[in-house]
Specification:
41% of the residues are buried. Strand 4 and strand 5 form a beta hairpin. Helix 1 packs antiparallel against helix 5, helix 7 packs antiparallel against helix 8 and helix 8 runs antiparallel to helix 10. The chain is α+β, with helices and mostly antiparallel strands. The protein contains 15 helices and 29 strands. The chain is elongated and about 95 Å long. Helices cover 25% and strands 35% of the residues. The strands form four sheets. Strands 1-2-3-6-5-4 form a six-stranded antiparallel beta barrel. The protein has a six-stranded antiparallel barrel with strand order 10-11-12-15-14-13.
Length: 649
Amino acid sequence: MRKYIRKVAALGMAAMLAVPPTAGMAMDPILPHSQVTEGMSGTAYTVIDSSGELRNFQVDIVGNMDNGKGSQPMIMAKASGPVIEQTGGILQGMSGSPVYVDGYLIGAVAAGIKDMTPYTFFITPIDEMLPLWSMPDKKNKTHISTINIKKAAETREKAEAEKKKKQEERAKSQDKKVYGDELLDRARAAVAADKEKGKEKQPASDAEKNADANAEPKDVMYFSGFNQAGLDFLKRQIDPQGSYKFLPMGAPSAADMNKTDYHATLEPGSAVGVAVTYGDFAVGATGTVTAVDGKRILAFGHPFLHRGNVNYFMTDATVVGTISGQSNGMKVANIGNIIGRISQDRATGIAGTLGQFPSVVPIKVNVKDNGLSRSENYGARIAYDEDFLPQLSGGIAYAALSKTSDNLSGSTAKVGFKIRTDAVKDGVVARDNMFYNTADVGQIAMAELMQAMSTICQNSDKESDIIDVQVDITVDGDRKTASLISAVPDKKKVKPGETVKFTTTIKPYRKAKETLIIPYTVPVAQPSGTLNLDIRGGGLVPVTTLMLLQQSGVDVVSEGDNKQTTEDKLKKLERAGKNNEIVIAPGQVQKPVSKGAMQEAQQAAMQQSKERVSNLDKLGKKPVTPGETKFATGYIIDNVIHASLIVER
């Protein structure tokens, strides 16, 4: 015992001499898995009820399992004792519970064995988890911070003042004490707890020794705010393998939803949460802390989503209780206040830092259902992680829509969004459109929002900052589509640059015909001869040869797409035709013209262009595509008709 205490004290002294003292708990001494052998007995710690009290249970080592070079070694063990009898075995949610042998941390409770007793489980060796703290951390590098800067500054000043005061007091005392009291107390408690265990060890069966590593992580995914349709969408995005159980519980209460704890502390065995989104819509999981070193923590003993270097919320967690089951028992817990940032999500566990916080993207969704006379506003914060931003932003907007409008089949939705970002020079990406679907309009209505977010997140030049996302949705329970019937020009023969008025007739679904007057300007560079025009819905894009090749499965990228910047792609999306617009533009097939006529048209266009000198830019108007007219309507236009003009010079 004394030898052990001296060793721990020496470790504590070495640590204090090597680095400045930091707030928080010091790392416990460890025992590598290579020194863990069959027959050893130890103690694990976890929380099983709302008291928050650490409870312990006995762990008997069955043996080491090594699946070959490059694979992750595991320690097989059996759990016993009053706590385990009470819970009915190792439960989902106990992942990360630290296991000690003779006061040395050997690893984290990580997984049970499928279709076998819940009392037998695997331990992830602590020496396999420690490298998480030294893994590269390149996330969270955006320049826009959403942290309370004033609060952070006050916290820094307070911590520095306390540190200075403590150093002055210690310098005055000159007692040469090692200030490792907490470390020694924890070591004594761990050793005493192990020695009190006198339960007879039972030999492991051959079946257990030879069990394969068909391990099931003991954890669940919690969600809040998502209805079943929204949850199904998220499952496909963040858990395609179906390895997690999603439970409709464990979200922060309304009172705690926007709280951030700047001075939180954790200890091995404490409950801890991780979340990718937080607020009216929350997605995350809870588990147990394995190790603490100052502000750094290790937890879970297995991955959360196995995404490597990440940028997630770290939260505290409150255990509600336990539910026993042969293979599906669980420890139920609620994620709570934001207390730090998770930076690593890898095979052996998760790692993060208390008091540091992820960059976030606030999203607000306003939904108005005209049929139900209902309006709702939703808000959430998404941890800035480019792997999830497109899916989560679309999923949150969809969930908000489906919750407010309980029936989206046969409905029409108008969706508008604004993304404030430095990915474009003017700082805002804005787009609105109308959608209709007989089955679920929400499934297609979020496509453009997700496309814009994906384009920003895939910026090949830099990591773009996203300040916030605003989504406005209006839903009508009826079908608002219309078909083009005819488009008649007020003159058949025209000159380049001349404006023609098309009297356009549309037939809305189950309504009387409507007549619209749409002006169209002939391209200045249009050569003489027949000009064939397509009059179509804005969402009906003309099919090109390139598109036909792509649709047939040939991987073809146009030269123009390769040269486009992120801003080019976003502006192209903003300018793209909308489903509720009538677009008049030259058709894909035109009558061939002579070389002379083409040169004449080009020279005339250049001359007129010099005379105009970009008045549109001076007026602040968006540039338009030559020869294309867009006319907004209150309907989704679902077809194409054709017309022709005779151009004379």
